[in-house]
Amino acid sequence: MPHISAAAALQICVLLSAFPAQYFISQWYGTDSAQRIQITERLIIASWSSFTKSYLSPDAWADRLKLWLSKTRTYLNVGLLILHFRSWYYGEKKTKIGDNEAETHSYFAESSDVRSPKPEYIHFSVGQVIVHKRFGYSGVIVGWDIKAKAPEEWLRHKYPPAKQDLKDTPHYRILINKVNGFGKSTAYIPEEEITVIMGLEVHHPDIKAYFSGYDGSRYVMQPWLKKFYPHD
User: What percent of the chain has pLDDT over 70?
Assistant: First the structure.
């Protein structure tokens, strides 16, 4: 027999006590002893019949079990829907973040694509020291793209309609010489704005990450960087 919970037992007590009490109040007075006994017997039989039908009947418990299973399936279905949604949402979010990171690292000459063969119109090489023609700061080339690769918003800000043609020209990533006090540590600029200079060393906190040394005319690339620019 299934276990009766405390709540169910309390309900049984209420049913067995409250209903007879109400009935006695309305029926007990004004009757003789024989009638009282008959009324009491009927109440006891009715209460016991109600109790057995509700808590001792296999059919009643089967109905309760069906109702419980139905609610459980509903909760499980809702839970599964929530889990599927969370999995889809966070998986989609993670994918988008991953895509954004991949796009970010493909901008500003930071792509891991091997630049081979090197086009003839790429006039400068990684490791060469340059000077900016307009702003005067010096720096060293650490990467290049055959044309500008940057977010559209950056390109619109950098190149107004009058300078749109510059987007399709070679662009170079520069570590800016700290001694210039320029305020920026890197730059991404078109080829026409720079010129090569020799005999000038560049001071930058990341210089050793890209180069193993300076030979007097240019910086020598680290092996990992040489793999991306084998012809420079």
Answer: 56
Tens of pLDDT, residue by residue over 13-50, are 545 554 454 554 455 445 566 666 666 666 677 666 66
Nearest Cα residue to 154 out of 111, 108, 120? 108
Using DSSP bridges, classify how beta strands 186-190 and 171-176 pair: parallel, antiparallel or unpaired. antiparallel
Q: What is the pLDDT of residue 212?
A: 97
DSSP string covering 173-219: EEEEPGGG--S-SEEEEEGGGEEE--S-----TTHHHHEEEE-SSBE
For range 216-224, the mean pLDDT: 96
- Indicate if the pLDDT at residue 136 is higher than 70: yes
Tokens coding 131: 């000077």
Q: Can you name the residues that pair with 220 across neighbouring β-strands?
A: 213
- What is the spatial distance between Cα 131 and Cα 148, in angstroms, rounded to a whole number? 19
Mean pLDDT of the chain: 77
Pairing verdict, β 211-214 and 138-145: unpaired
CA distances for 13 relative to 7, 20, 58, 61, 114, angstroms? 10, 11, 21, 19, 84
For the whole model, what pTM was predicted? 0.57
Classify burial at 107, counting beta carbons within 10 Å of its beta carbon; exposed 0-12, middle 13-18, buried 19 or more.
Answer: middle
3-class state of residue 172 by DSSP: strand
**How many alpha carbons fall within 13 Å on the CB side of residue 3?**
2
Nearest alpha carbon to residue 146 among 174, 177, 113 = 113
* Tokens encoding 86: 């969370």
